Amino acid sequence: MPWIKFVHIAALVCWCGALLYLPALLMASVRQRTDGGFDHDAPPMPRFLFNSAATPAALLAIASGTLLFLVHGLAGGWLVLKLAAVVGMVLCHALCGWLILRVEQQRPAGVWTLSALIAALASGLMIAVIFLVLAKPFA
């Protein structure tokens, strides 16, 4: 069943890339709104990326990871920590969605700072997942 692992890794790469790009896109859209002299609508790109790429990739990564767990019977302390890091990534994903709504509702206060924090937290969680999967401590 190597195809399950391939699907899982491909979906993770897409989700992690989107999870890093969404905060940068939000920061840019807030900066564009404050720099512009005209009142204009929120850019549609953050919502499109969130709905069309990030969320489906996240769901596919979680579903294929669950399938890997069930098929291969993986277990160990490292897996519990990895799942905790994935829960953190899901929370970062949800926070990005909330920030997209704030930008669309023209309430950009704090979006830039929260986006930077989400990017830093998501990066740390991704590094933790990679370490836990490759090193498998507490096995």
From TrEMBL:
Free-text cofactor note: Binds 1 heme b (iron(II)-protoporphyrin IX) group per subunit.
Cofactor: heme b
Pfam family, one: UPF0093
Keywords on record: Cell membrane, Heme, Iron, Membrane, Metal-binding, Oxidoreductase, Transmembrane, Transmembrane helix
Pathway where this protein functions: Porphyrin-containing compound metabolism; protoporphyrin-IX biosynthesis; protoporphyrin-IX from protoporphyrinogen-IX: step 1/1
Catalytic activity annotation: protoporphyrinogen IX + 3 A = protoporphyrin IX + 3 AH2
InterPro entries assigned: HemJ-like
Topology within the bilayer: Multi-pass membrane protein
Signal peptide start-end: none
GO biological processes: protoporphyrinogen IX biosynthetic process
Transmembrane segment boundaries: 6-27, 48-71, 77-101, 113-135
GO molecular function: metal ion binding; protoporphyrinogen oxidase activity
EC number(s) stated in the UniProt entry for this protein: 1.3.99.-
Location of the protein in the cell: Cell membrane
GO cellular component, one term: plasma membrane
Function as written in the Swiss-Prot or TrEMBL entry: Catalyzes the oxidation of protoporphyrinogen IX to protoporphyrin IX.
Family: Belongs to the HemJ family.
Protein name per its UniProtKB record: Protoporphyrinogen IX oxidase
Biological source species: Franzmannia pantelleriensis
Lineage: Bacteria, Pseudomonadati, Pseudomonadota, Gammaproteobacteria, Oceanospirillales
